[in-house]
RNA sequence: UGCCUGAUAGUAUAAUGGUAGUACGACGGUUUUUGGUACCGUUUGUCUAGGUUCGAAUCCUGGUCGGGCAACCA
């Protein structure tokens, strides 16, 4: 019962509405993506909000594609959006499309023309812009504004019939050219586009603008709370105006601040650019803040939902630290991911007093966080092991409690060893470390009485399997690449992907299952990439483990 | 020099005229066969100037700073 949580301002509004008996207590929200790109973590915030509201107040949520601009939209995006919403764990009441309402919207437009509230304008885009004036100067009406209702009706019908080329005419609301809110200066309702639509095909050559589609779609569906982001605040008077003049269901619009995450970009335009210019491996590149990218990276739906819960909902601009997202996935995976050993940057360790050719089988629990360790698996131990290069220091730093000459450390689930010596090549790189082991320190049966501070992971050289491991870092070098001088792409982090072609993994890891996260002990959480095959395993690092030691170093 | 919006620890987010709290981060400690986890502790905040009030983060006025708005995009 986490009912301790205080309400966000939208939940407050909903509760007030319910208490006041508005809409008979009914709550119906919608999630209205335009199918012109893949969903990202910012959309996840909106999805969690809209679907969460409905869930909390016994309502429902429609998935409505805002597909009023055929030249930018595509079924590929429709499909990915549905996948992503489902993957996040939400079910929509109805799958709908603004294009379902094109006929109705056309009737609405005719109705407004008949009421003298809309007119056909033959001006060019430049002329219309000029006639709109500026924020400090009112706009000026043109000759078309006073066309008769009859003429407007005829022209609009001709627009629909395809008599005019793209851009020749538009339908505009007759509102207020002097309005201080620029959106009210006779906004466009329809434009001519002889374009093929992904659902309506070639039926239409005129398409409604957002402002003449969204509110009416909400009203048609009887959406009670239409939740969108802050940039639509100035559109709200228009939203209400159309609903009022059309005398249709009074949906209400509420706006919240969109999510900004540091070290990434969140605009579909920029994400599209990264994809098209091949800076990343598609929309689902694990470095992308897209839902599909996060999924491929190894994020879980629960971790993303938790993240959206923690960031809250308010109206002030915000910049969330990506560290919070990382906290959420660690918190989730810590409880569920099985532990395995893998050596990413190997150096050979030779146990000089361990018999050559001997092999012992050790076991380790799958997850120390689980009740009974969640079972266990076995792995072989022998005289030569791979260990992590940075688990040995030629000249140990103070408080370094791993391996060094004369230093003792435990090999996880095996013996305590003592560093004895090391071998270097001509370039001065350490190629081999020699140590001795304490036979009485066998894991689970330790009678040595020795206490060591450090424990390191290892993989037997003779038994190790290999895998490609991909380490990801933030995609951009700066917190807010979209707000820096110059092109945001100038700030791409050149080291955002590091590929380790041949990491050594413990034998059991050969059985890794796609979609099942695993923790490489002391290294982080990993998941199989979509291109991984049994003959060539590829692991993506989802996130590192928190590393208190590394932090002090830097 | 128009209109709309917003401003609470480093980052987010509560407190709805009555003790400024929570989370993440940072820092310190305990436990630990993951320098992980868990647990404990510390640190840092109401943009500013007035006003109303017994009492203001909250209400009022002025200012400052941030964001948005003049696409045949959504």
Automatic annotation (TrEMBL):
Keywords: Aminoacyl-tRNA synthetase, ATP-binding, Cytoplasm, Ligase, Nucleotide-binding, Protein biosynthesis
'KMSKS' region (motif): residue ranges: 265-269
GO cellular component: cytosol
Binding site for ATP: 34-36, 40-46, 229, 258-259, 266-268
Residues of the signal peptide: none
SUPFAM superfamilies: Nucleotidylyl transferase, Ribosomal protein L25-like
Residues noted as binding L-glutamine in the record, renumbered to the chain: 66, 210
Superkingdom of origin: Bacteria
Protein family: Belongs to the class-I aminoacyl-tRNA synthetase family.
Name of this chain's protein: Glutamine--tRNA ligase
Organism: Mucilaginibacter segetis
């Amino acid at each position: 019962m986490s009912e301790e949580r205080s309400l966000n301002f939208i939940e407050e509004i909903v509760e007030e509405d319910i208490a006041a008996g508005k809409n008979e207590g009914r709550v119906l929200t919608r999630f209205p993506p335009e199918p012109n790109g893949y969903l990202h973590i910012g959309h996840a915030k909106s999805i969690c909000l809209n679907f969460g509201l409905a869930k909390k107040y016994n309502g429902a949520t429609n998935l409505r594609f805002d597909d009023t601009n055929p030249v930018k939209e595509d079924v590929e995006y429709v499909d990915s959006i549905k996948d992503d919403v489902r993957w996040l764990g939400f079910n929509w009441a109805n799958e709908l499309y603004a294009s379902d309402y094109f006929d109705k919207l056309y009737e609405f437009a005719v109705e407004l023309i008949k009421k003298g509230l809309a007119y056909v304008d033959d001006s060019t885009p430049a002329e219309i812009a000029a006639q709109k004036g500026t924020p400090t100067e009112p706009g000026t009406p043109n000759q078309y504004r006073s066309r008769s209702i009859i003429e407007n009706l005829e022209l609009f019908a001709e627009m629909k019939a395809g008599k005019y080329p793209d851009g020749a005419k538009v339908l505009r609301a007759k509102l207020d050219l002097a309005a201080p809110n620029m959106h009210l200066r006779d906004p466009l309702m329809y434009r001519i586009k002889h374009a093929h639509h992904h659902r309506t095909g070639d039926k239409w050559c005129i398409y409604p603008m957002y402002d003449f589609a969204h509110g009416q779609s909400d009203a048609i569906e009887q959406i009670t709370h239409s939740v969108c982001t802050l940039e639509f605040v100035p559109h709200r008077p228009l939203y209400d105006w159309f609903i009022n003049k059309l005398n249709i269901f009074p949906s209400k619009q509420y706006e919240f601040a969109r999510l900004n995450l540091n070290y990434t970009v969140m605009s579909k335009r920029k994400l599209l650019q990264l994809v098209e210019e091949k800076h990343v491996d598609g929309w689902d590149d694990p470095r992308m803040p897209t839902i599909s990218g996060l999924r491929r990276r190894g994020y879980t739906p629960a971790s993303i939902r938790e993240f959206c819960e923690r960031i809250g909902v308010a109206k002030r601009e915000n910049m969330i630290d990506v560290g919070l997202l990382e906290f959420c996935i660690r918190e989730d995976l810590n409880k569920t991911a099985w532990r395995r050993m893998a050596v990413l940057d190997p150096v050979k360790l030779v146990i000089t007093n361990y018999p050559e050719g001997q092999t012992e089988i050790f076991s380790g629990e799958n997850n120390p966080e689980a009740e009974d360790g969640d079972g266990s698996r076995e792995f072989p131990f022998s005289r030569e092991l791979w260990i992590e290069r940075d688990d040995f220091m030629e000249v140990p730093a103070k408080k370094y409690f791993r391996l060094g000459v004369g230093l003792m450390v435990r090999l996880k689930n095996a013996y305590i060893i003592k560093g004895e010596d090391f071998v270097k090549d001509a370039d001065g790189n350490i190629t081999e470390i020699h140590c001795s082991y304490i036979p009485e320190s066998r894991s689970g049966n330790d009678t040595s009485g020795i206490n060591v501070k450090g424990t390191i992971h290892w993989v037997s050289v003779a038994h190790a399997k290999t895998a490609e491991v991909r380490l990801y870092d933030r995609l951009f070098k700066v917190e807010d690449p979209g707000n820096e001088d110059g092109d945001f792409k100038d700030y791409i982090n050149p080291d955002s992907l590091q590929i380790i072609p041949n990491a050594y993994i413990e034998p059991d890891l050969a059985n890794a299952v796609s979609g099942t996260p695993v923790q490489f002990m002391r290294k982080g959480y990993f998941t199989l990439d979509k291109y991984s095959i049994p003959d060539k395993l590829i692991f993506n690092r989802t996130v590192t483990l928190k590393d208190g030691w590394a932090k002090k170093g830097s």
